[in-house]
């Protein structure tokens, strides 16, 4: 059992070395030798954990997706009380924006993967896997909001869920390109949610956030 844990930990360390390269110069120029040097191990040692570059790329993509999912779960769990569907959506969507150094690096690495995935069937299939589940989860939150009277039933659809995903992906890209500041992207995300839920929903959510802050201060 200890050997298995050490093996997994070493694979994660190698993945993180790959991310450091990807976040500064992309993936195309990153050879196994480059990653081994960044990880501080020999090429032969790296190949003990990953026989091919494709195997390493797929593992690293899965690992960074797991970390991103864990970060979003933490955001949801940090909400003050039983969260509304809108609060859950905002926590998830804002967690997909590069609002700090950690999330920025993660998205830079993701961008490098997606650029390669366009022409790499294995990586493309891997990158596509999480999208249907995310869309279904967001659509479920929209349906819950409609049941609570916070959203018109006609907007509780998978299409609206996909539009939210697409909007935040676009905002994240523009933050990485320097078109928007992170806080501007967050403001526009709130504007998109206000359009979706309507002004009444925006006011209700703002009141709930203010109430949560007051409760936290007591």
Architecture overview:
By secondary structure, the protein is an all-alpha fold. It has one domain (about 1-215): Tetracycline Repressor, domain 2 (Orthogonal Bundle), CATH 1.10.357. It is built from eleven helices and no strands. The protein has helices spanning about 1-25, 30-40, 45-50, 55-75, 85-95, 100-115, 120-130, 130-145, 160-175, 180-195, 200-215. Helix 4 crosses helix 6. The longest helix is centred in the first third of the chain and has 25 residues, at about 55-75. The radius of gyration is 20 Å and the shape is elongated. The N and C termini lie far apart (about 45 Å).
For the record, the CATH architecture stands as Orthogonal Bundle
Q: What is the average per-residue confidence, as pLDDT, rounded to a whole number? A: 85
CATH topology: Tetracycline Repressor, domain 2
* Portion in helices: over 70%
**Category by helix and strand content:** mainly alpha
The CATH class is Mainly Alpha
Q: What profile does the largest beta sheet have?
A: none
Keywords, separated by commas or semicolons:
DNA binding, 218 residues, TetR family transcriptional regulator, elongated, Tetracycline Repressor, domain 2, mainly alpha, Tet_transcr_reg_TetR-rel_C_sf
């Amino acid at each position: 059992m200890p050997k298995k844990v050490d093996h997994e930990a070493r694979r994660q360390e190698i993945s993180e070395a790959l991310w450091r390269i990807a976040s500064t110069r992309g993936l195309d120029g990153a050879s196994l030798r480059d990653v081994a040097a960044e990880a501080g191990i020999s090429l032969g040692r790296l190949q003990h954990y990953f026989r091919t570059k494709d195997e390493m790329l797929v593992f690293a993509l899965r690992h960074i997706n797991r970390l991103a999912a864990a970060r979003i779960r933490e955001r949801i769990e940090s909400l003050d009380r039983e969260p509304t569907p809108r609060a859950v959506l905002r926590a998830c969507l804002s967690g997909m924006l590069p609002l700090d150094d950690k999330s920025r690096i993660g998205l830079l690495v993701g961008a490098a993967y997606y650029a390669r995935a366009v022409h790499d069937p294995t990586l493309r299939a891997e990158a596509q896997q999480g999208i249907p589940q995310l869309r279904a989860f967001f659509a479920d939150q929209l349906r819950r909001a409609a049941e609570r009277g916070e959203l018109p039933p006609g907007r509780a659809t998978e299409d609206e869920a996909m539009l939210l995903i697409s909007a935040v992906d676009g905002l994240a890209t523009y933050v990485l390109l320097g078109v928007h500041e992170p806080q501007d992207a967050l403001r526009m995300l709130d504007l998109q949610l206000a359009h979706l839920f309507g002004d009444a929903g925006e006011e209700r959510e703002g009141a709930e956030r203010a109430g949560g802050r007051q409760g936290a201060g007591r």
